[in-house]
Write a structure and sequence with these properties.
The chain is mainly alpha-helical. It has one domain. About 60% of the residues lie in helices and about 5% in strands. The protein has a two-stranded antiparallel sheet.
Length: about 180
Amino acid sequence: MSTTRTKAPASDTDAGAVPAEPTIFRRLFTVLRIFTGLVWLSNGIAKVLERGSYDLGFFSFSLVTKSSARGQLSGAADRTYIRPLGWFYQSAVLPHWGFWGVFLTLAELAIGIGLILGIASRLAALGGLLQIGPVWIMLWHTDLYLWEYPEDLFLLLLLTIAPAGRRLGMDGRLAARFGYRWPF
């Protein structure tokens, strides 16, 4: 009779647990990147068309136009307890809305295209954070829905940290071209 010694598993993966595949995370980040890009691009297009309400019969929705964005910024600047930030929006942004409205529109279009195509995707996500972060900060003390901005901010933060544009995006090609020193 032969006795065979079996080695005890060194970790959970040896015991039969399935480790998460890195490709699953890459695919997930690719989907999040493209979806977030579609959100930003659609709101940028709504600002170009200045049309925010859509009714497809079976489905209706609204997007943020330039005029509604101005109203949201004005309300946030009026209600904030952070006086320097409110002052900046009331004194520099809102009185010069002609410039800032165009800037906001172009920035949203660039963020959307950058995320969808994976071109400088980390920079695009950072741009989105810089755009909606101050509004969220101005509205901290108000009684707004808890998850109204954090879901956007969290996705953008993840996309700023992770090189999500390297899979099915131009960032992967650019990284290979620049010896994988491409920062985005």
